[in-house]
Structures are given as structure tokens and as C-alpha cells.
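Q: what does this look like with glycinamide ribonucleotide bound?
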Amino acid sequence: MKSIVILISGRGSNMEAIVQADIPGVRIAAVISNRPKAGGLQFAAGRGIHTEVVDHTAFESRALFDQSLAEAIDRHAPDLVVLAGFMRVLTDGFVRRYEGRMINIHPSLLPAFGGLATHRRAIDAGVRFHGATVHFVTPTLDDGPIVIQAAVPVLPDDTEETLAERVLVEEHRIYPQAVRWIAEDRVRLENGRAVVLAAPESGCSINPALEC
Ligand code: GAR
């Protein structure tokens, strides 16, 4: 049994997707938020999952916040830390502590559009495809070995909202998939890349909703 801790900051729909996927061999030890009012906390508590708040506004520095967050995480001794809409920049020390066992989901096809407002920027850039990426976390923001991506078309009349909605559907599919692969020990980090052993037939990780 692999134990995971999920970090959220808000709505928590990706966390919810992981909980609802009921991944064999995965136990969700805790859901931790840096915001006391994060909507996702209620959902998790309602499912009997241990919830906790480490409020970043109560700390004088990023380092002190990260230290307290790490203590909260480590009490559960997780095999994997899952950032699911956790909107804090993490210190290098924190990232190194969980090196190779912390993943993040980002709403773009990295390395394009790291940072914020990814859907707006994708529309403004005129790209024909956009999407989401699950990656291991490294000290560089929105960087690190890619586990899975999903692409969606950008349609001519897309707004930031319609595009975000289409991407979110894919996020909810690929994040549980990534956690499952890691829980099954099918993801190896080799020379800075994440290699997925016995991945599904090619095409499944890109636009699988249409093709698979
Ligand atoms: C998701 O779209 C996630 O990809 C994004 O925040 C949203 C959280 O939604 N994360 C980032 O932008 C991280 N750089 P959720 O709380 O409903 O899962």
C-alpha cells in the first residue's frame, strides 16, 4: 500500500478526481491546505480523509512556512506528495526533501506557458493545442520530468473559461492515471526524464478522450 499526501489551495477538483478514482494500492493519508477556506477541505473531510491547514499567512517567511508544512506532511510518512492546485512557490530545501516523490499538475503543455493565466496566454499566442502536464517537482517552477500530458484543441471561439473547462476534464483524467502509474512502480526517473514502463499504446497519453 502506498500512502500519499495531497496539497491543495482552493477548489480541489483534482484532489477530488484522485479520491474518486479509488486507486488500488493507494491510501490518501491526508489533504493539507495552505488556505483555511479551501473548498476541497470539506469534500475530503466528508470522505473521512484527515484534513489539515498550514496557513501561510501565519508565517514570517517562506522558509518557516515550508518547514512547518514539511513537518505536517512527514507525520504521515507519505510515499508520494501530490500538489493539486497548490498555489505556493516552494523553497529549494522543501523541493529537495521530496525529490523524486513529489508531483504537480500544471494547466498547460509544459514547457510552454509555465506560471499563471495559462489559458489566456495560450489563446493570445494563437496555439492550436493546449493542455495539461503532470510532472515531478524540481526547484525550477513548473519544470521537471514529465509523467503524462494531455492535449486539447484550442477552438476559434474559445474564451479563457471554455478552454479552462476543456483542459480541466483532461486534468481529472491524467492526474489519477499518473498517481496509479507511480503507485504501481511503473515510473522511473532516468537521466532527468520520467520513463513510464509498459505505458498504454501510443496516443493514449495525448487526447485519450478522443482516441482511447
Ligand atoms: C488546476 O487547473 C491546476 O492545474 C492549476 O490550478 C487548478 C486547481 O484546480 N494548477 C496550477 O496552476 C499550478 N501551477 P483544483 O483546485 O480544482 O484542482
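The pocket of glycinamide ribonucleotide is lined by residues 8, 10-14, 84-85, 105-107, 142, 168, 171 (CB under 6 Å). The chain has a mean pLDDT of 94.
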